[in-house]
Amino acid sequence: MFYFNYIYFFLTLHTIIFFYKHLNFIIMKKGLLLILAVILTLGVNAQIFSDDFQDGDASDWTTVTPTWTASVPYSWHLSSYSGDYYFSASAYDGTNNLASEQWVISPAFSTTGYTGVTITFDNRQRYTIYQDLELYVSTDFTGDSASFSSATWTQITGLTLDTDPTDYNWATTTDLSLGVDDQATVYIAFKFVSVDGTAGNWTFNNVVVNGTGSSNIETVSNNAGIFPNPAINELNVTSQNNIRSISVSNVIGQRIMNIESVNSKNYSLEVSGLTKGVYLISIENVDGTSSITKFVKK
Prior knowledge:
single chain; 1 helix
């Protein structure tokens, strides 16, 4: 019995020394003492959805126009001026202002795990409008125009809107509550209404939805962090310093993702395509500091 206990002790000791040496090599190579498995519960403000339309592509937004006819063929559309793209709605045929009801609906996004969900966007009016731009939110719209009328659309009030139709300045609605915390599927919609004789023009741009995510954040000595952990679709990476690159490896060390030239203190990593399991994420900052930790893909 003593002999077997001795062998067990000997093998265990050498195993510990082996892993210590290799872990120490990794740490010293990066020039950083990693504090592993420090778990904090923090509330972190994060961007859930955004679109500034600067790629000139709004094909993932859905237009719904109940008043569409051959004689009133008007709907929200992407416009641009001096290279700046934005959504625009009007109902002027070159001679007359016509009656219309025009909606444009965002792609779906999820607020699961987030509280205090808010929206920020720029807006502008021109000419003589009939009524103010309206904002709505839905959690039961299914994403196609056929389900539009059966969905529940809740109007969001308290918008900060442009009041001067004579200039080209933007007004900004900032951090307005959407009331859709912890929802699996969310859509936002902008609505334009005109009547015969009075239409005007409304535009909007730079749509950003934020929320506070309260989740486990695994941190290291240079205050880098990841959340949520486990992650389903997106893994948010944060750091006190600008991040240069992010790489993800599986548990046997095979690199499966590498993001270069991040140049930001925050980055949302798309992980929906990963299979369920445990992964290692390496974060390298522009100042030369770096960190490595693990996350779970759920």
